[in-house]
């Protein structure tokens, strides 16, 4: 069975890790100087190399012939780790082993000495999924583990970890992989696999993966499976369900020029062609971001082609900066997680963007035409004309009032003792 590219091309040394140079340099120096800690915390977005770094660190610590902090990948310990058969490297998925019983079992086993390696390494992935009692059970062991044990905790949500756990680890924050580093890695994989993909196709894969190298490698694997050894950007866009940037630009232009009908038609065309509306929404946000960066004088940060740059410059010249930010903020709030085929959230965002940009046009104006003008003189005269006099009722004469009171007087009234007849 063929092995997935992200597993086949997993980094085996610190030097092969893409985009995490400050972290790899620190760990290499610690291994070379024999100053490794008893507990590490690797946190950051998915697909940035946290688990791979943990395995490399486990190899470097236990390697029989380390070279300047790097594992040799040739000794029996390194080979056992690469092949996944070293029993002294224990990987635990905290998402499925999150209870206190599992942690108690771990506390019992850490006391046993390693079998093959010098030190026993525990890699606990998604450690934020542990329950509060499990964290409490782990705390003392994490603070003072046996000399032969190293803990490596990995998480994508470090804010969910108790401060007592974080304070007992050396923390390393992994950053998203830079586009140039991810692109270089994809070029290396494509060349080694005999794949002829043009630069635009690889750049599109990198852009869609949003800083996750594992996602980029998976997308490349899918493209190879579908199109073979030769494909371009159009094939990748079709694979990912991307609409062409033309429709996204049409929506942006309609929103900035307050053309509701044109924007609705562009959204309808994208939905009718079967495009992934969540990705389509991200494309709209990206186009608006290019316009905003161009207006701010930071056009060099735009990672796109010449056509996209020209559109951003044209929109930046005709749109108000506050309007661009307002429209960008509104489209970035669109939530399409519940309905992948519903266009309503995008249509509402367009409606809000059009009708909050400057003086809002009336809906009936666009559907039925402009209302007939009202003469200003008529408005002014109606505003300044005195109000008609209010007719007040004539005062009631005293005699009439007394007569009405007498008419309403009861036949008799009660006293505190007996009924008194009227005189």
Protein described:
The chain is α/β, with parallel strands linked by helices and 423 residues long. The chain has three domains: 5-173, P-loop containing nucleotide triphosphate hydrolases (Rossmann fold, 3-Layer(aba) Sandwich); 179-240, Helicase, Ruva Protein, domain 3 (Orthogonal Bundle), CATH 1.10.8.60; 245-357, Zinc Finger, Delta Prime, domain 3. Helices cover 51% and strands 8% of the residues. It is built from 20 helices and nine strands. It has helices at residues 5-8, 21-32, 50-62, 76-82, 100-109, 132-143, 163-166, 179-193, 199-209, 213-227, 233-240, 245-256, 260-272, 277-295, 306-318, 321-332, 344-355, 363-368, 376-384, 398-407; strands at residues 39-43, 89-93, 120-125, 149-155, 170-173, 196-197, 230-231, 413-414, 419-420. The strands form three sheets. A five-stranded parallel beta sheet has the order 2-3-4-1-5, covered by helices on one side. Strands 6-7 form a two-stranded parallel sheet. β2 (89-93), α5 (100-109) and β3 form a beta-alpha-beta unit. α5 packs parallel to α6. The longest helix is centred in the C-terminal third of the chain and has 19 residues, at 277-295. The model is unreliable at 359-383 and 413-420 (pLDDT under 50).
């Amino acid at each position: 069975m063929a092995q997935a590219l992200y597993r086949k091309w997993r980094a085996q040394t610190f030097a092969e890790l893409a985009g995490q140079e400050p972290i790899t340099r620190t760990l290499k120096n610690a291994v070379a100087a024999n100053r490794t800690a008893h507990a590490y915390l690797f946190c950051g977005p998915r697909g940035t190399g946290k688990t791979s770094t943990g395995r490399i660190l486990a190899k470097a610590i236990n390697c029989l012939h380390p070279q300047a902090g790097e594992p040799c990948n040739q000794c029996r310990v390194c080979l056992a780790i690469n092949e996944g058969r070293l029993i002294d490297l224990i990987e635990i998925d905290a998402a499925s082993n999150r209870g206190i019983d599992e942690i108690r079992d771990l506390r019992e086993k850490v006391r046993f000495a390693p079998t093959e390696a010098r030190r026993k390494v525990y890699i606990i992935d998604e450690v934020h999924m542990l329950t509060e009692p499990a964290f409490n059970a782990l705390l003392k062991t994490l603070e003072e583990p046996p000399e032969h044990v190293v803990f490596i905790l990995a998480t994508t949500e470090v804010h969910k970890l108790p401060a007592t756990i974080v304070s007992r680890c050396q923390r390393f924050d992994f950053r998203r992989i830079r586009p140039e580093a991810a692109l270089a890695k994809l070029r290396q994989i494509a060349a080694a696999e005999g794949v002829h993909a043009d630069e635009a196709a690889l750049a599109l894969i990198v852009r869609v993966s949003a800083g996750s190298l594992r996602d980029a490698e998976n997308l490349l694997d899918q493209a190879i499976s579908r199109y073979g050894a030769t494909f371009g950007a159009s094939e990748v866009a079709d694979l990912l369900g991307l609409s062409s940037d033309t429709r996204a630009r049409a929506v942006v232009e309609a929103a900035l020029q307050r053309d509701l009908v044109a924007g609705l038609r562009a959204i309808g065309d994208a939905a009718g062609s079967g495009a992934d509306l969540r990705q389509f929404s991200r494309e709209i946000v990206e186009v608006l971001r290019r316009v905003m960066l161009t207006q701010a004088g930071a056009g060099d940060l735009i990672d796109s082609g010449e056509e996209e740059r020209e559109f951003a410059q044209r929109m930046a010249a005709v749109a108000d900066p506050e309007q661009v930010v307002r429209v960008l903020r509104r489209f970035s709030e669109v939530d399409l997680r519940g309905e992948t085929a519903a266009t309503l959230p995008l249509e509402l965002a367009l409606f809000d963007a059009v009708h909050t940009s400057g003086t809002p046009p009336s809906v009936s104006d666009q559907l039925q035409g402009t209302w007939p003008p009202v003469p200003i003189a008529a408005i002014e005269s109606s505003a300044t004309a005195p109000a008609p006099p209010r007719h007040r009722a004539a005062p009631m004469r005293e005699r009439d009032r007394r007569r009405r009171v007498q008419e309403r007087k009861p036949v008799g009234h009660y006293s505190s003792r007996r009924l008194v007849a009227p005189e």
